[in-house]
User: What shape does this take?
Amino acid sequence: MSVIKLGKAQFRFSVGPWNLHPGADPFGPTVREEFSWEKKLQIFKEIGFDAIQFHDDDVCPADLNPAETSARVKAMRKQLKDLGLAAEFVAPRLWEHPNTIDGGWTANDATMRKYATDRSKRCIDIALELGTKKIVLWPAREGTYIREAKDPFESYKRYRDYLNALLNHDASIQILGEMKPNEPMDAMYMPSPGHFLAMGATTVDPKRVGVLIESAHSMLLGVDPSEDFALCMALGKLWGVHLNDQDGLKYDQDKSFGAVNLRRAFNQVWVLARGGFGTKGEYVGLDVKAMRTQKQDVSMRHLANSLQIFKDLCEKVERVDEAKVAGFRSSRDYEALELYVVQLLLGK
Ligand code: GLO
Ligand code: MG
Assistant: This one.
């Protein structure tokens, strides 16, 4: 898909392979066949994505030796190039391996922490060879089920040591924390982008520490995603997004973007447009799940729908009468402003 220009923004789109999935959930097995890797890339290309988000083990098995890893990464890079796709980021998947049951860099066992750090360094090597400098950290198990399980002072120290080890491993990489308040843990350390940036500011190279914000993660925190985006853009730290939607304070639903609350989605697009998102090569990423009920041949609709809704909301943003909005703001008539926005969304 060609880039969408909106205000100062330039929107290009990315997606991760896990967004196409065979439908297993914690209560039931898969319900449709998994697409092959080649088919997934073809579907992403057809829908109009420009870049792919990776976990390290999406590229090759996690514990493969260095020579074979490098060969696999080269082959993947060629596959992407042939399709005209870029690699947006690589994230170390530290939440599935037997060595990370108690977490990665905050595990109580030093040998497990070493595994997490070594694997993350390897993830950096994979990312660089794949052509991206962005490393996303979704700290899935860096937290506690019960407060007494880990010493918080030690955990925060380990957090900084881990970030420093990654920043020192290569002088060009950028770390994007994708923070989430809970799930799978009862409580994750540093549940918001602001927490992560505060920690980032104490590392050896704060300018290479930023965030990727997922809409649903902000909602689970009780924060509006557009205001979270705006804060991080104001700080020059919003380097990625995972757009999706969420119906209330439940498990992380990863619903199609805008499918629950159009106005909340509109505000996200509006803020991204005003903040000039994408001009430094940032992608508008999706993190959405298909409903379990979808049959395989239509199990990619949530992706196409999310992009369609995003584009439709870009049109709404284009139609915003800035002078009118400024007038409502200066007269403090927010009731009139509210009706204006709702009618804009209703197509009136
Ligand atoms: C889960 C996260 C997860 C990450 C992905 C990339 O809540 O959103 O899907 O985005 O693993 O690190
Ligand atoms: Mg995500």
User: Anything to note?
Assistant: Residues 91, 136, 138, 178, 180, 214, 242, 252, 287 surround D-glucose (ligand 1) (CB under 6 Å). Residues 4-319 form a domain with the TIM Barrel fold (CATH 3.20.20.150). The CA atoms of residues 21 and 34 lie 6 Å apart. The chain has one domain: 4-319.
